[in-house]
Write a structure and sequence with these properties.
Elements: E1 7-11, H1 14-26, E2 31-36, H2 39-47, H3 50-62, E3 67-72, H4 78-81, H5 83-91, E4 96-101, E5 111-115, E6 119-123, E7 131-135, H6 138-152, E8 155-157
Parallel strand pairs: 2-3, 3-4
Antiparallel strand pairs: 1-7, 2-5, 4-8, 5-6, 6-7
Length: about 170
Amino acid sequence: MTTPEIVYEIMESNAEALSAIDKVVTNATRELRIFDAQPATLRERDFGRPARIEVLKTLLLKNRTSRIRIALHETTAIESELPRLLMLMQLHSTQLQIHRAIGQAHEAKDVMIISDNAHFWRKPYFEHQRSVLTLHDANSTQPFIDRFEEIWESTELVAVGGAIGL
C-alpha cells in the first residue's frame, strides 16, 4: 500500500475553504477536533447542513471510540444555529462534546478543524479570509493537535436544552 501524497494548499475564498473543510472531515476515521468562534461561523462552515451531519454520524457509528470535540468561543444561539448538530450530540453524548472556551482559550484567535492525526484546515485569524489545508502530514498536524488540547483544557461543557425545530 502506498503512502498518500502530502497535500498543502492555501485558500483565499470561502468556497475554497468549504471544499477544504469537506476534505478534512471526510478523511476522519477516528476523531475530529474543532475550534471556532461561535455557532454561526460553524454553521457557515456547513456543520448545520444535513449532508455534513450524515458524515459526522457515520464517523460516530463506525466505532464506539470515535469522537468529535468542538470548542467554541461563544455558544449563544447554539440551539437555533446548529439544531441538527445538537440532535446528533444528544444521540451520541459520550462521543460528541461541545465546550465553551474560558480563561486563556478565550483569547485564541485562530480556527481549526483537525481530522485524526494527519489532516487539518486552519485559519490563523478568524476574521481573515485566508486559510490553510494540510492532508496526510502527521508531522505538520501535531503542533495543532497540541494547540487544540491546550485550548480544550481551558473549556467548559456547554449545557443545552432540547433541539427544537427539527
